[in-house]
Structures are given as structure tokens and as C-alpha cells.
Queue: 2 jobs
Job 1
Amino acid sequence: MFADYTMGELGAIFAMQGFAGLILFSVFVLMALGLAIIFGQMGVINMAHGEFMILGAYVTYITSNLFADYLPSLFSIYFFIAMILAFFVTAALGMLVEWSLIRHLYKRPLDTLLATWGLSLILQQIYRSVFGAREVGVTIPDWMMGSLPLTDLIEVPINGIFVMVLAISISVAVYFMMYRSSWGKQVRAVTQNRVMAGAVGINTERTDRLTFGIGCGVAGVAGSAFTMIGSTGPTAGQLYIVDTFLVVVFGGAASLLGTIASAFSISQAQSIMEFFLSGSMAKVLTLLTVVGILMLRPQGLFALKLRK
Amino acid sequence: MSDTPKKPSLSMEASRRSFLMGGTALAATLFAPKFLRAADYPTAAVNTTGLAVTDTDVTVGILHSVTGTMAISETGSVQAEKLAIEQINAQGGVLGRQIKFIQEDGASDWPTFAEKAKKLLVNDKVASVMGCWTSASRKAVLPVFEQYNGFLYYPTFYEGLEESPNVIYTGQEATQQIIAGIDWVTQTKGAKSFYLLGSDYIWPRTSNKIARKHIEKLGLKVVGEEYYPLGHTQFNSVINKIRLSKPDVIYAIVVGGSNVAFYKQLKAAGIDMTKEKPLLLTISVTEDEIRGIGGENIVGAYACMKYFQSLDNPNNVEFVKEFKKMWGDDMVIGDVTQAAYLGPWLWKAAVEKAGSFDVDKVREASPGIELTTAPEGYVKVHENHHLWSKTRVGHAKADGQYEVVFETAELVEPDPFPEGYQ
């Protein structure tokens, strides 16, 4: 397949392919971070994760329309405001859901799976009733949609760079919150031993609510960013949910580092295989590899060391 | 979006204008000498098999998904069918009887489609059904329709390889849609090499198979063929592969949410479709899909199908106007929506030709039925239950509409079992 090409062309293609892998990696990290907080730290199997992402996307859609109608001069930067709004709206919904639904189920983790799945169906139908069954088109400012020609052959999509920067910033923010703030300490304490954490004076209920809210908020930001690369419709969240769980479970549920490592390995494997095989085949092989590794290492790539 | 139709207003002025424009559905029948009265067709004579037909009305079924993933696509079909039924009723109905409809929701779930089809045929005794969208849902209801001898009008362009006595296919089968488009792109654009791309299920695979055979028959080259799972959202790798193989044409049959991701990423990767290097030709993006993709992300692409909203003929101008009046000004009309609109009209014509609602007689009367009032122009039902129709190529504009750049001179014969293409 490479016989007819010059070294320059091949180099360019491989550079762009490497970049495609990095974009996929960033997308996976963004998708998975929110779930890693909720599932990893709280043990809640949140099947409605995709719907929280799509809520962020719809917030972006509404914001873009508002800016187009009332503040057209600021349209080129509306996206940043939309992301902040997306964070707060989804976080608020997340906290509401935690208060009304999830907190009654902490002792029955498997039931959260059913409850949040039900929630995802409810949210989908709400989106459908409010925004219509069809996908909505989110207009992205022009400067975010083009590509940067690095050389004659290498062109780098700007939205890819945007997603990468966002993924890095959010990862860093989450890391500091988890490991450098008192809130993070409380979250980790509650994760490790809920009763004991309560006994030393941590307000576990508040911690739970905040954790769930932040997890959902991060999902909302991811959803907002994905309006650049994907579709916004009532059921679009379903497109992400499988990959998201795959990344989190493969990485080891309670480890943020694990989530990032797993996002990296899965994205690189998939992107390289997609290049040499067909798309469906690449997916099959990726899933097979993940299943194989999880059989050997059920706790995932990185796991907390526990005294058994 | 609202599902309540606005009241139709058939003002004299509107009908006079349409009459002057000549041959619209409305005017043609209002002024046609043949105005059928129910009294001339006693119920006992026109309904010998116990269908839901009374002296004043006749019941049909509408069976589409209004919930679930497919609601995105099927909503337009439901709207078009309701419009057609309302227009037919305003003109006096079918054999002097008003059409009533019972709408069931297939819920994007194929067993549910089969169950609801059975309910419509067995409990409600509907005289015909307008419905289904995906091939999977059609395949699910097919045994039900054949067992209980129902009659289905199916609107979607699809892969062919089917010909049921109980179905009229109002969309194009694959060869009608594909061959004319490839001929056009090779003749007018001088395309020599093609990259075939699709979502991974039966329609894109069958269609690409036909496309490949045809391309190879013309002595041209297919430089790549790729399928991605439904719902796939990352196309950067395949875009790189396309760059590497430098085709003249990207032939894309990507569907659903993947569609949006594909076109956005194509644009972001710096492939400007207006430069036509490579040119993008699709058979899966109607005006409906462009709403989700965003016109600015697909401008410059070509689509090959039988109907575009921008078609400039009096029938279509009237149809677009009525559709928007009923469902709102922001509606767009895609190929399938128009095909769904034909269903009730074709059924009415067949019933009146047969002089009976009996399914066997309607089936017998169907081949040869002509519709001069179709928005796409003249169509005719073939012996094989598909429609003779023209194929057109549209050029996507930034406002989400297509500009028609090519139209076959003659009606294209439907050929659901194309020899040498399987």
C-alpha cells in the first residue's frame, strides 16, 4: 500500500496519523474523566453518563443561538462561555439526581445501574420533547473549524488541538482537586471507608453530592467540546457510553492515572489498527485485546493496593 | 417539535393560483370531472374482506418510530403521510370515504414493529399501512403483512433484493440511486478512482457492492472500501487513509450520528469539498440530515437521490408550501419524506382504479398506476412494485439546501434484483 509514495508523503501521513491518535486519546480522556470520578471514587455505575454529556452539548447549542441572536459581535468566543455554563448546568442536574435518586442506593451499587439506565431513558425522552427528535446543528465559530497547514502535506485540525488542550487542562484540574485539596482528601476518605470518614467528622452526604455533581459537570464540558466533532441529538449520548466504560474499567476503577493510561493505550491501538485494517475490524480487535487483558487482570491496569 | 398540525386553509385564491400553475394535486382533483361519491360504491361491494371501511370512512395505519433513535429520521415521513391524508380528505376522500388513520409507534425496535403491524392488521383491520423506515423494521413486519394479507407503502430508499406482493416501495432501490450518480460523476467530472465508505450494515454494504461492480464495469478503479460501526464518531484515521490513496471521488454512505462526526471532521482536517479534490458523492445525506450536520460543514458535496426540496416544478412548489403550512416554516423536506407523501396518493389511485378496498384487488390494480402530481414529477408503479422515477444529483449549499445540477433524461427503471451486480 505504500509503494507509490515518497518518503515525504509517508512521513506526513504518519505524522497526521499520530496526531489522529492523540486526538482520539484526548476525546477518550474527556469522556472518561467524569465517569472515573463517579464510578471510580463513588462506585456508582452511571449509565446516564452519556446523557449528561449531551446536556452539555444542548447547553452549547442554546448558548450559540443566544449569542447569534443577541450578541453576534462576541460569537467567536461564545464557546468558552458555553463550556462554563455546561459545567454548572450539568453539575446542578447531577446534584439533583444524587439527592433524589442515587443517595438512596449507595448500599446497593448494582441497583444504581438500573436506576441510572432508567434515568438515561427519561433524559433522552425529555431532550426529544424539548429539542425535537432530530439532531440539532451547533454552529461552531469559524476559527475553530479549520486546519493549520504545518507543511504542504501535514494539516492539523484546530478542533483537535482544542480538544487536546481541554483534556490536559481538565485532567490537571481534576488531579489537583483530588490529590491536593481538602475536598479531594475527603472524597478519598469516604471512598475508602465511609463509616470511618463519617466518624472523624467528614460530612459524607455533602461530599457525595459534590463529587457526583463535579463528575457530571466534567461530563457536561466534554459534551460541550464534542459538538465540534460529533452530533447533538437525544440519543447521541449512547454513542459514547460503551467506550467510556471501557476506558474506565480497563484503567482500574479507582485510579485517575489508570484512566489516562487506559485511554492512551486503547486510543493508540484503535487508531493504528484503523489505519491498517477496516474500521469494524479494528474495533473488534481492540475489544478482544481489552477482554483478554481484563481476564488476566480483572482489577484493570492500575488498582489501589489493598490489604486483603 | 410540535406534532399538532395547523389547520389547512384551502382558500379560493390558493387553489386558483395552483390551478393556473397547472396540474397540482389540489387543483387537478377539485376541477376534475371525476368526483366519486360513496353512494355509487356500496360498502358491501367495495369491501368483501372485512376491512375497516364504512359508508363514510376508511381506516389506514401509520406505523413509524416516533420514539427511540430512529425518530430522528421517521418524523418527516409521518408528517408527510398526514399531510397527504388531509389533502385527500379535503378533496372528498377515497371512493367518497374520508380517510381516518390509526398511528402506532414502532419505537425504533424491530419486534415492536411486528407486533404493532399485527395489531393494525388483525385488530384494527386497516385497509393499508404507510410505514417503516429502516430495512430491519421492514423485514420484521414483512411476514406479518404476508400472513394477514396487509398492504404496506414503504418510503425509504433501500438496498433492493426484495419484492413482496404486500409492499409498494415508494423510495428508490439501490441501482436506481447508484448507477446514474456514478455515470454522472465519471462523465461530467472525469472521475477515475473511488473510495467507498459506509456504515457497517446491509444497506451501505449492498449499495457499495453495486457501486463497485459498476465502477469496475466502466473500467475505473476502487482504491479503498471501508466500513465503520453504526454510531462510530472518530474518522480521523480513515480521513488520513483517504488522503493517502488520493481518490477522485469519496463515495460516502455513512448514516445517523456518524454522519455528523464524519463531515465535521472532514472539514476540520482541511478537506474543502468545494474544491472537489476529492469530490464527495453521497447517497445518504438528505436535507434532513444536513440540519444535524450543519450546512457550512458539507457545502460543496454532491448527493444522488430522486428528490430535493429545491426541485423547481409546480407540484413541488405547492407541496413545499403546504408542508410548511401544516408543520411550520423551519421544516426541511428530504427524499424519504417526499416518498412517504406518495404512499397515500398511490393507494388512493390504486383503490379507485380497482373500485375496491380489497387488498387483492388493490394489488392487482397497482402496477401501472401513474401519478402526475408527485412533487418529484411523474412517477409510475412498476410490475415489481417499485416506482419508475428520475434520479437527480444535488450540490450542497451552505444554507442546507441542494441545488439540482443533474437529472436523468428518462425515468429510471427499478431493478431490485440486478443481474451481474450481486
Note: Chain B touches chain A through 46 residues (CB under 8 Å).
Job 2
Amino acid sequence: MPSERNRRNFLKATGVGLLGGLAGCTRGGSGSEGGDGSSGDGSTGTGTGSDGELAISLDKYTGADIDWKQFEGTKINIGAVQHPWVSAIKPAVPVFEELTGIDVVWNILPEQQFRTKRQTDVSTGAGQFDVFYMDQVVNQFREEGWIQPLDPYFEDSSLYDEAWYQPDDLFEASKWQAHGGGYSDTWTGIPITVEVQTQFYRKDLYEKHGLEVAETLEQFRQNAKTIHENESDVVGTVGRGQKGYGMNIYILNTFLREHGAKLWDSFPDDSGLDSQGVIDAAEWYTKLLQDYGPEGASTQTWSDVLTTMQEGRAGHIVADANLFWPGLTGEDSKVAENIGIAKAPKPADGTFSPNAFNWQISTSKNASNSEQAFLFMLWASSEPTNTWLHLNSSAAFSVRQSVWENDEFRSRVGDNFAQVTLDSLQEAAPDPFDRKYPEWGQRYSEELQRAIAGQKSAEAAMTQAAKIAEDIYSG
Amino acid sequence: MSTPTQTETASKTPLTRVRDLWNDYLPYWFMAPMVLVMVMITFFPGAYDLYLSLIAEPTFNVFEAEFVGLSNFETAFTRGGAFHSFVITITVVVSALLLESALGFVLAALVAGVESGRAKSFYRVLFIVPMAVAPVSLATIGRIMLNSEIGIIPYVIETGTPFAAPNFLSEVPLLTVILLDTWNWTPFMFIIFYAGLSSVPDTLVEASRVDGAPLWRRYVHVIIPYMKTVVFVAVLIRLIDLFRTFGVVYGLTNGGPGTATQLVSINIYEQMFINNQLGVAAAIAIVYLVLVVALCNVIIAKVGFEGVWD
């Protein structure tokens, strides 16, 4: 549906892109703007106010039966990706330093560079990072013996006070993923952020066409059809079609669970990817994108989805509440006033089961300061720090229920957004990242992408994905 | 280097012997630092890559490493998709090389034939611009220009021709990759061919024209043979560079849909950074390196030319 307006947008975008490209040829630039942060710059935050007061009162922590000062005078290195949690927590880090006497040094890298450095650090036994971001490779690292289980620290009365920490305040989905997604009996790290899938829709278009917010997949499809067929320059829906385990399968996994299927009916012999529930979910998702999505749906990434929705060119989407809400309702969005949020749809006879993803921080067996690292994890994920962080930044990814129930936070982010996210997080079912998930997840996503591109049927794609996943374990 | 007699050797002090050793092998001592650097930057990474391809999990400690023989190589070609990515790579390399060489030569010949110096300068700059665009920017621009919703290329095809525009990134991704690379790198061939054409003596061309040779004969029998070395060097450099293609394709298609545009370089990257299969990635890299080096050597040996290495 090309139009004159889009043409002008394109020319502007191309002009900017071309200039950027030419600029990219120059040497000696400052690298990535916004701080690639590969600096180990220590804590650069301003944890103290202008009058020298700390951002968070130490009283919030000193009441805990924890010997915060036992490692005074030491230092911890934190390896992290460029992530909103880092920017949000940095200003509070002086509070931790004051509380414990432990200096914090940040090593912040772009995601792929960080993964490489983390892999090298743990596999070679260098132990440079005392604390590091951990993601889908958690079970691979755990089984290699690279991750230090945290249970011994939780059992150490000088390091942990359960009554103060309130572990039950953490979402079950977050705790489950921190236990290797059901593959580990011990804590592999502590969750710091969570993202859960919800539905975003255009309130103005729904009102214009008399549509009800979809509760079922069929309603979701019908709403997409109505908008797609009756609006020019607006597609019914848009979704992640690009391969990658954070891309298309991250969305499909919600729908397959809601269809009563699961990943690994019997680990590691039966992946479950060729079960009827998965095939039904894959057929529904591919057909939805093919019929009512944009051209080239198979190449859409999450950022394409966000941009399309921000530009007002899609009727509704299923995406991460926490990642998309600021983008869709912020100043970059042309439809900020018209974005509604609701729980992700489910089959009429299915179970609501949205996918979720947690970033966690872990420590390695070779780290020199794992106990200090544990204190940092505890402090960073504690209720006082979490609440402060969510009231004093644009963050909206708390792993603690109490934050989502906090009136001040709810008034900042919007009551409806907070309630939908809270409800979704309480029912969330994250992906279980088994040891070889990165490998077979990638291949599974490639098969799904082929189906979305129309190169093969969803059934053939999922059957092939099942075979690949099982071969990877049997081989 | 003289051969010392027994008497001379016996009478030499240790210091003298060291001095002789220094003097006798002086060129080698001077070369040693450079050789050391070369070993560090070429031999060591290669050896480490080979080591990684033979072990189960990466570790710097050789004594702790679990050697698995050729298992990673087997995995690479069974479930690692190595064969498929080699086929894709060869398709892209051959197609793009032919297109870039042909277009580069035609453009160079056309510009060389322009009489006006100002016009010639304008065309030279114009044709070089695409090569100056950074790969990731090119991929981004490509995604926008080829986008079925807002892209100018589908728009021009649909409004200016009787044909429906395909979805470039999902229906004809391989062709799209080849054409984008051609757009990006034809200027490189153009520059070299243009320089080569400028070096052909006017008297030679004039003589063939006086002899009545038509334009195409002048090119086929006079100009191109004269430029053989230039053409060979340009093709060889571009060939090697094409095997290293990564950024544009990864930015444009991520190697997809599925694995439709998964070059070997992308496969290695995905095995390494997405699948965390360092051994498999290293195995594919080793095979790739050997094949590319062998291919280049075969080409140099078979085509054979003088004046390049000498």
C-alpha cells in the first residue's frame, strides 16, 4: 500500500541513512553514542542528592539481619549488556557502596560483545566478572559447571535474611526461570527484570469499527481482518517473523502453550514440536501474518513491529508489555493517545499462558568475589531498591509484585497497564531454556520463518523442527 | 658466509662467535621481528582455531581439553548446515563477481570515452559513491528501499511497469542479496578497470582502429588482453573479498528466510554467537579457510600471469 506520505518518509529516511552510511566510513569517531560503556568506569551514577544525601535511606537495609560490612574495602566487577536496568540502577549504586564498603566497577558492552566476553571469562576460568548478565544459555553454563549456585549463600545467615528480602514477593515465573527453567534445583542467579507478553491495540480504530478487545484468538483474527480490509495504509496486525530465539518463536511459544502444547513433551526424546497443539498454533500464527500482516512478515523483527505500531500502521499486536509500552505511549509514537493494552488472547478453550523473559544476574565459580557479588544481587533485587528504581526512572520491568501494586508506580505508568501486566505476570509461563536451546531454538525459528514466508506449510515446518531438535540431543 | 678452519674456530672467544653469528645471519635477525608479528597474527589464530575445532568445549588449558577428533566437522556438515551455506556462498560469489566485473568494465569504458574532463570527473565521483556506504547502513537503506509497504523500488516496479513487485526479502532473497552487493561493489571494479583503461596506449588503440577493427574487436583483441593483469588482480581481490561478505547480508536478511541467504560467514557467526557451538564454528571456519586459499592458489596457478608477483 505505497502512498505519497510514505514516499516522503522514505526519502527522509533514506537521506538520513545515506548520510549515516557515509559517516560510517570515517575513522576515529566516538563509536556508539550513548555510551558503549566498555569502560569499567566504576559507578558513575549520582546516588547522592545535591545535599549529599543518599538516593535511598540506609535504614531500609540496615534493618536486615545481614552483615553488610563484612567485605568492606573490596571491589566487584559487573559484566552487563547495554540495558535500561543498568541505566536505572546506576544512580543508586553509591547506596550499595556506602552500605557495604564494596566498590562497584561496571563493564558494559553491546550484547554480542558481552556474550563473547562472558563466554571467554567463564570457560577459561578467568573469573573477571563477579556478577554478570545471564540469559538463554543459563543451563549450558550451569551444566558446564561455570555458574556458581546461590543456595549456599541463601543458607548463610550472615549474607541473607529471608524476612527482610521477601522472596515470595518475586514472581513465580521469575523464580522458576532463575532455577534454570525447571532444569535446576538451585538458584542459578537472581532475576532483575521481567518482560511479559500482552496485547496492544488501537483504541481509535477499534472504536471506529465497533470492535471489542479480543479475548480469544478467533476474535483477534477477526479484528485484524476488519481493520486490514477497511483501512488504507493500516495492516490488521504485525508480528515477529524474523528467525532467532528472541524473535518469532518467542511469540509462538505463548500460543502453543495456550493450545495445550509445551516444549519437550519428554525431554530429551520428544520435543513436542510436532504435536497437534504446536501445529495448530503455528498454522494460526503464520496464517494471521500472511493474511493480515504486512508484506514480508517473515523478516519483521521486534523493532519493525514497534515502529509499525508507533507509525500507526497496524491495528494490534502481541508483544512485551514492558518493552513496548514506553515506546508506544512515548513521544516517538504517533498514536500514543490511542494505544490500549489488554491481556494476550487465547484459544476459546485454551489456558491463558503468556510468555515471559527474565534477565538475571549470576556469578561464576571462578569469580574471586562471589559472596560480595551475592550481596550486590540481593541489594539490587530487594524491595527498597526495586521500588526506588521504578519510581525514579522510566523502568517498568520489576520482578516484584509489590512494585506493580505500588500506588505511586501505578499512577506513573497507568493503572490499566500496571494491572494487565501484573495479571499477565502472575500467569506467565517462560520458556524453559534447556542446555541446547540456543542451537535447536535457532533452527526451530528458522523453520517457522520459512512457514511465515510461505516456503512450506506450518505442519511441515514444525515436523522438521521437531526432528532437528531431537537429533541435536540424540546426536 | 666463510667456512672457518678448525684452528680459527678453536681460537675464537664466545663474544667473537656471537658477533660472527650476528653478522652471518644479519638479514634473518632484521626479519625476525616481522616474522614474529606475522606468526602472532596469522599462525597463532589459525592454530587456535584448529585447536577449538578439535575439542568439545573451549578452554585455554590444553591439558583439561576434551579432544573429540573430527566430531565438530561431522556436526558441521550434518546438522550444522555447512554444505548448504557453502552452496549459497558460491552462488553469491560467482554471480556477484560476474555482474560486478561486467558492469564495472562497461561503466569504465563508457566513462573513459567521455570527452569532457568535467563530465568525466562527475561520473567518476558518482559511480564511486555506493562503495563509500558502510555495510550496515547499506543493509538498512536496502531494507527501506525494498520494503513492500514504503519502499521506492517496489513502488517504481508497480507503477512504472506492467509487473507486480515481488517481495524482495522473502520471495527472492538470494537475488536481492546478489544485486545489492553488485550495487555496492561495482564501483570497486569500475575504479580499477578505469585505471587500467587509462593505461592502454592511445597509439595501440589508434593502430587497431586504422586497421579497420570495429569497436568490439578493439576491446576483445587489443584492450582487454593489454589489461589482462589489471583484470586478474581486480577479480582476485574481489573474489577474496566476496568470500568475506557478512555485514550487508546479515543486516539485510539475517541469513533468511530460514537459511535461504545463509552465507558461510553467517553460519559461522550463528554457530559461534547464537548456538554457542564454538567447536562447530571453528570447524566450518577451518574448512572455509582451506577451500578459499586452495581456490585462490588454483586460480593463480591455472590462469597464470606475469608481472604481478614478480
Note: The first helix of chain B runs from residue 6 to 11.
